[in-house]
Amino acid sequence: MKTIIKVEDLQALYLVKEGTIKAADGISFSILENTVTAIVGESASGKSTIIEGITKTLPPNGRIISGKVYYNDLEILTLKDEKLRQIRWKEIALVPQASQQSLNPTMKIIDHFKDTIEAHDIKWDKRKLIEKASEKLEMVRLNPESILFSYPMQLSGGMKQRVLIALSLILEPKVLILDEPTSALDVLTQAYIINLLKELKRKLNITLIFITHDIAVAAELADNVAVVYAGNLVEYNSTNKIFNNPLHPYTKGLINSIMAINKDMSKIKSIPGNSPSLLNPPSGCRFHPRCVYSIEHCKKEKPLLHNLKDGSQVACHLYYEEERVNETKTCRIS
Ligand code: ATP
Ligand code: SF4
Ligand code: MG
């Protein structure tokens, strides 16, 4: 399989009157074509910032300080705005967080499709627009006849989310990025959207990247999981390994927290402490104030994402030290 997105040392921050919020700090990872990748982590850990950095859609006070993002062989962060605009939607489509509110209440759904294609200099006559929009709405199991001429307020939250996915597919992108596609929806609607995304992936051979703070959703849908903590990518691994042999102490805490879903409450151990302020994050490993395995070195030096022999990637000094000291032994902490 071929790499479709490659991110190298992405650093993004926000300017605020108190200083700078270091929301994405040295993020590197690669995504293979036709796979599903989940980006997971607590609220305010920098998940949306990573995606907005990759797609160059940060808010006005956001800045990309360094890093490269490749779409196939094309380095996209250095592209002129016009060229980047063409790549967005046609190649890489993004459904931002809480974008249900971005649907214009005074416009029918058909007009949202019309605006989207016109923003990309595409002109279809009405018949073709209806035909294409209907095809995409059917893909998300909505009835075009009743939806196309409705206003957003006539639709439920789950229906609006499906309309947004259909809109994002109108120019048939190769990569679809969804920021929290299931949040703010009831459990049944969440399950419906997850199944729908599975079906789209199967039918369209599309590469999916989605953000969730719910690791159980990642388990359902993703081939690979990127775990983010306080603006750092701390583990990147197959979903199977993340769930059956989590490596990073933070990932272990996250997996433990979903024991609640299995109703084994007695075994839940929450991660002690709170996530840090990104205005003034902890030195060295940003997780060190909460980590039970922390050693002196962790306070001083930031652990880089390290490739283990089995292909796992983890940013933790324990694994690095262990591999260096004993080449034949794989580090296991429990
Ligand atoms: P959530 O799960 O709540 O959506 P997230 O993981 O997507 O959170 P981000 O939205 O990327 O987190 O935010 C990362 C950090 O950057 C947080 O500390 C947040 O408060 C801060 N932040 C995000 N947007 C801005 C902004 N426009 N200005 C200043 N700080 C911001
Ligand atoms: Fe814990 Fe140190 Fe690993 Fe950070 S680097 S997760 S503090 S053991
Ligand atoms: Mg977010």
TrEMBL record:
<dbReference type="InterPro" id="IPR013563">
    <property type="entry name" value="Oligopep_ABC_C"/>
</dbReference>
<dbReference type="Pfam" id="PF00005">
    <property type="entry name" value="ABC_tran"/>
</dbReference>
<dbReference type="InterPro" id="IPR003593">
    <property type="entry name" value="AAA+_ATPase"/>
</dbReference>
<dbReference type="InterPro" id="IPR027417">
    <property type="entry name" value="P-loop_NTPase"/>
</dbReference>
<protein>
    <submittedName>
        <fullName>Peptide/nickel transport system ATP-binding protein</fullName>
    </submittedName>
</protein>
<keyword id="KW-0813">Transport</keyword>
<dbReference type="InterPro" id="IPR003439">
    <property type="entry name" value="ABC_transporter-like_ATP-bd"/>
</dbReference>
<dbReference type="GO" id="GO:0016887">
    <property type="term" value="F:ATP hydrolysis activity"/>
</dbReference>
<dbReference type="Pfam" id="PF08352">
    <property type="entry name" value="oligo_HPY"/>
</dbReference>
<feature type="domain" description="ABC transporter">
    <location>
        <begin position="5"/>
        <end position="255"/>
    </location>
</feature>
<keyword id="KW-0067">ATP-binding</keyword>
<keyword id="KW-0547">Nucleotide-binding</keyword>
<dbReference type="InterPro" id="IPR017871">
    <property type="entry name" value="ABC_transporter-like_CS"/>
</dbReference>
<dbReference type="GO" id="GO:0015833">
    <property type="term" value="P:peptide transport"/>
</dbReference>
<comment type="similarity">
    <text>Belongs to the ABC transporter superfamily.</text>
</comment>
<dbReference type="GO" id="GO:0005524">
    <property type="term" value="F:ATP binding"/>
</dbReference>
